[in-house]
């Protein structure tokens, strides 16, 4: 066995103890292409919050969304995807979606269940939920925007897809979304 020097190893931005993504952004994009889902990719500095996104996106057209990874008191995981400025009250959302007292899921659970890090949560992360542990809730109001903008598993890229393309992808992963008017 030949020992490799530090210079011969593949270098990336992950800390040495961090695991690689279960599905890479490029693998996700290949899957979308294979499904015939059109998208436009934008590369940018890493974004961690909606405010970061608002400051850096410029005139990027379409709907911009936030993604909330939640867990209820009974241990059910939820991914709620809504327009970025939509106020979400966890104290009333639980009744709308049939959950038992919601709270935010931890970064460790996010990684275990959806295979992404905070700041990169996206409906596309359901590609990694092969056990179908997560119930998906989509804001009805966001689906009128075309395109819709989401991170493709990493927060230094954004892809713009049609609502139809998003729904086709989600259904192919086995996640039939609950579509609700979250404005009420």
From TrEMBL:
Biased amino acid composition, Basic and acidic residues: 1-16
Gene3D superfamilies: YbaK/aminoacyl-tRNA synthetase-associated domain
Region of interest called Disordered, as start-end residue ranges on this chain: 1-22
Annotated YbaK/aminoacyl-tRNA synthetase-associated domain residues: 44-168
Transmembrane segments: none
InterPro entries: ProX/PRXD1, YbaK/aa-tRNA-synt-asso_dom_sf, YbaK/aa-tRNA-synth-assoc-dom
Signal peptide segment: none
A molecular function (GO) term: aminoacyl-tRNA deacylase activity
Family: Belongs to the PRORSD1 family.
Name of the featured protein: Ala-tRNA(Pro) deacylase
Protein source organism: Oceanibaculum indicum
Lineage of the organism: Bacteria, Pseudomonadati, Pseudomonadota, Alphaproteobacteria, Rhodospirillales
